[in-house]
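RESIDUES AND SHAPES:
===
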Amino acid sequence: MASASTSAQSRISKPRRHSRIDPTSQRQTRKGTRQAALEPSDITQSALPSECHLGLVCPCHLISDLEHEGTPDEPRGGQAKNVRRAVAASIVSGDDSQPIRHHSSRKASPLLSMTWLLLVGLCLALIKPVAAQSALYEPAGEGVLFGAWLNTSSGDVPTAFNARLGYNASVFQIAQQIPMLAYNYTTGAGGPAPEYHIEQSFTDAGVFLTVYPSTLASVTAQDLTDLGNQLLNYTVTYNRTCFLRWAPEMQGLWNPYGQQPTEYVALWKIMYPAIKAIAPNTAIVWAPNTGQSYPYGQTAPTNAADLAALDTNGDGQYDNADDPFSPYYPGDAYVDWIGMSVYYKGPNHQNLNVPQTGGFCSSEIHNLDPDTGVVNVVDFYETYCTKAGKACMLAESGSAYHETVAGGSSQLAMQQAWWQDCMLNTTFYDANPRLKLIMQFEYEKLETDGGTADLRDYRLTNATDVLAAFQQDLGTTADRFVWAGFRQPPAAIPTTGRPTDLPGQTQPATSTGPPALATVRNTQTSFPSLFFESSAGRSYALAYAAASASMMAVIGATAFMSKAL
């Protein structure tokens, strides 16, 4: 949808829930507790399911410490080892109907056997809760981040959007190319994305940076280093939550890097560690286009390797029977968040002002055939959004009102159908709980994807009647969203898109905007930690700590009594 032309660990912020704009209010903030992440090297691996290897020592590992006096055929400690292996085998196979046996000639102590059973039960009870690790910057519980794309080149900025909406959006999108184009002092084009607009918002809203490669082959190691330092500046110097949406909508030829899965994945696997090495608190987003109408009328690539990758069913054809997503997926280890572009532009992609039917957005993210309701090749949400440690988003989304099309429904009818089905539909979020961020495309834009030039208005906060209806409906669901809090900007911020080291390009931050209170950013949650970010996670961690302490006491007493017996 959008194109390139559309424009240290640090503390991070959890934006506030339902932070209705009120510059005169005085809110109290709570300081977060710095968390110490466990290193993978600190964890003892064993022959147990991968769920046990999540940064916390599973009680199953403690079984190996229950040693006893063995027989000549079974050395000291052998019985515990056999039990541990049997437990592991039963867990992996899922068969708990068979008793756990060992081959010791010595009768086991009843107390020792009871202890083993207790440990196994606790291990199994704790595995699943610990496995549900949150994604980096994922809001806790049912919270959903509310973000916006603004056309800053036309003068729209975060402060104006927040004032119109009546709430502080939690994330704002900005964009740039890579390699970065030189700044044009006449047109204002090029240079880094205008992040200064977010600094001037007097909120702690997050940065959502979209980066469009000019070509895949043109991106150099130095380009990635420069980008990493830019992101580090956002997360550390400006203390911002930061998302990097790298090379989105990669299936389409409307992007210069589109339809090149082999080179795309190869570059991604270079980009991800390069950025993380410099700016580890950046959440990197993989965001393809919707799978509806894939392959979008495009012809097959001439590159043999790309064609082989795209022909996912191996029938020698490049068509809608192929998987739209998997050829471009770099792997779980290289992705923090999953995104998708979802737009409603009319029935069957026709430029008509006919409101969408209910369930449109659900069909999009599950990749359902709009005519049959059957999954078309692959269910996107179930395949990608439910991955462990990942969260999902609508990376850009909206409903188009066709301004130059005669007849049909009003803009209010078109866009109210959109937000009631998608943005503000709590049933939609309940059914898809991994959807944790929605980005509104707040643009009026001339587009030609329907074959003819079509002026489309996606904005919800421009037309008076649309805005009033949206605010009314938002008021009933605002508590579901996580809104940005007020925060004083840095001492000096740039006033244009020019490089900040040029003379005369900064001004005191307090010279404009409403008074604001500083907010303290919570610690990041990208790695396993004993004390989780979410309240649910903390309860599991505390239960684990209490159980571990009790088990250690039981183990010590059991080992002593076993020898005594």
